[in-house]
From TrEMBL:
This is ABC transporter ATP-binding protein/permease. The lineage of its organism: Bacteria, Bacillati, Bacillota, Clostridia, Christensenellales. The chain crosses the membrane at residues 33-57, 77-99, 160-176, 182-200, 272-291, 297-318. It comes from Candidatus Borkfalkia faecigallinarum. GO terms for cellular component: plasma membrane. It is a multi-pass membrane protein. It holds the Pfam family ABC_tran. Its main location: membrane. It is found in: Cell membrane. GO terms for molecular function: ABC-type transporter activity; ATP binding; ATP hydrolysis activity. InterPro entries: AAA+_ATPase, ABC1_TM_dom, ABC1_TM_sf, ABC_transporter-like_ATP-bd, ABC_transporter-like_CS, P-loop_NTPase, Type_1_exporter. Residues 33-340 form the ABC transmembrane type-1 domain.
Amino acid sequence: MSKTVQPKPKMHSFRILGRLLSYLFHYYKGRMIAVFICIAATAAAGISSSVFLQLVLSEVITPLTEQGAQWADVSESLFWIIFGMGAMYVVALCASVFYNQTMAIVTQGFLRHVRDDMFSEMQALPIRYFDTHTHGDIMSVYTNDTDALRQLVSMSIPQVFYSCIAAVTLLVIMLLNSLWLLFVVLLGVVIMALVAKAVGSRSARYFIRQQEVIGTTEGYIEEMMGGQKVIKVFCHEQRAKEDFDKINEELCDASDKANAYGNILMPAVMNIGHFMFVVTAIVAGLFVMFNVRNFTILGWGDTFTASVAMIGLVATFLNMSRQFSLNIGQVSMQINSVVMGLAGAARIFELLDEKPEADDGYVTLVNANIAEDGTITESKERTGKWAWRHPHQADGTVTYTELKGDIRLFDVDFGYVPEKIVLHNVSIYAKPGQKIAFVGATGAGKTTITNLLNRFYDIADGKIRYDGININKIKKADLRRSMGIVLQDTNLFTGTIMENIRYGKLDATDEECIAAAKLANAHDFITRLPEGYNTVLRHEASNLSQGQRQLISIARAAVADPPVMILDEATSSIDTRTEALVQKGMDALMQGRTVFVIAHRLSTIQNSDAIMVLDHGRIIERGSHEQLIEQRGTYYQLYTGAFELE
C-alpha cells in the first residue's frame, strides 16, 4: 500500500492565531472578554507609576520649589495622588488574581474541547488516513502539540496582550509628553522590529520543524516498541539504535537552532532598549541644557525651560521609555512559546481539517417483519430479520429489500493511489449462504477486495452490488453493521473479556456473549481464568496467548450475528489443535451466511463454494476445490506443494 501523502500548504501564523482565538472565544467568549478587561486593568496599573510620578512633580514638587507654596497647600493633592495610586494597585491585584485563575480554568476546559473535537474528527476519518500516518505521529498531536497549545493559551497570549496594551498606552502618553523624544524611542522600536523579524523568522522555522520531528520520533518509537520481539530475534538492536540516532539527531539539531535563535532575541531586544534609554536621556539632557522651547506638543516648553517641571517631565519620560522597552522584552521572551504553540495549533488544525469519510448513501438497514408472501414492513422492535430501506428520490416512495447477503462485484478496478491500479477487472458472485475463498501470494489483492466490500476504500471503476443495491447508495454505518470481520491482527481493548465480546453488539446480554464464546470454542479457556469472563485484559491483552486473543475476536464477531462474514487469516495465529476446535465453531458460525475467507492454509477452505486464485490483482483461476484440482493450474500446484505462497 502506498504511503505517499501530498503535502498540504502551510497556514500563515496570523491566520492560525486568528482561528485559535476564534476557537477559544467560541467556547469561552464571556470569560475571555472578562480576562482581557482584567489584563488591560492590570497593564494600566503597571504604567500608572509614571503618571503618578508626573503628578507628584507637577502638583507637589513644582509648587513647593518654584511657586513658594507651603506644605499645607500641597498635602491634600499628595494624599489624593497616593490614595489613587494605592487604589489602582488594589484593583490591579484583584484583576490579576481573577484573570490568572480564570485562564487556568479556561485553558484546561479549552484543551478538553480540543481533544474531544480531535477524537470525534478522528473517528470520522477514512482508513486511508491511518494507513498513511504513523500512530506515533498522531499521538504526538494529542500530547506534544496539545501541551504546546496549553502554554500558548495559558501563558503566552495573556502576557503578550498585557505587554502590547502597556506598550501602546506608553507610546500614547509619551507622545503627549514629547514628540521629539518619542522620535528617538520610535527609532529604537524600528530597530527592535527588524531584529525580531530577522531572528524570529529563523526561530519559527526551526520550532515548526521541531514539532514535526517530535511526531516522527514518537512514530518510530511506537513502531519499535511494537516490533521489539522481531528486533531481538534478528539481532537488529544496533541497527534500530542507529536509525533512532539519526532521527534523534535531526530533532536535536532542530531544537538547538530553534532555541539558539529564540534565546538570542530577548537579550538583543533588551540591549537595544538599554541603548534607546541612554540615547533618550542624552537628547533630553541636551534639550534641558540648552533651554529648547516647544519641548512638548502640549506647549509646556513655552512656560517652563530648565525648570524643575521640565526636569520632572524628562524623568517621567525616561521612566516610561524604560517600561516600554521592558514590555517589548517581555513580548520577545514569549516568542518561543508563541511559535511552538502556533506550530502545535497548526498540526492540530491539520487533523481537524482532514476530510471526513465521505458518505452519500441513503439506503439504511432496519428491523423488518417479513410475511409469508414476501411482504416486508419496518419494525421498531428487534425481530431478527433485517431489510434495506430504500427511499426513491424521484417519486418519494420507499421500498424494502430483504437482507440476504447476496454480494456481487462487476469488473472492479481499484488503486490506493490513482496512478497505480492494484485490482484489475475483478468480478465475483457470492450468493446468500455461499463461502468464497481467496488464495494468492502476499500483495495479490485478497485483503484489498474485502476492504472494498465494507467501503474502507471506494472503487475506481466497476460496480459492487449488495442484495441488488449499489453499495455506494448504502450508508456506510449500515453497510458495515451487516458485516462481521475477523482480522489476522487481533485488536482487543482494555476491559473485561465480557466487555470485549460485547463490543460486537453493545446491547448483547451476558447469555448472548457466552453463547458466542461457546460457538467460537473460547468458553472453556475463559472459564479456567481466575476471574472468568470478568478477567480484565491488560494493554493489548498481553495476559492472553495469541490464540486466545483470536478466539475472543471470533466470539466478538459471532455475537454480532451478521449475515455476511469476512475472515482474514482468522486462524493463522492458532495452533493446529486449537484450529480444529475453532474450525468447528467457524463452520457453525458460517452456517447460512455469506462468507469471504482469506487463508494461506488451503485445508481450511476446501469446503468453499468457490475459490478465487489471485495474482497481481487479477483473478487467474476460480472454481470449487475439486474443479481447481482437475484444472492442474496454480491452485493445484499450491495444493500439491509444487510451489508455495510467498
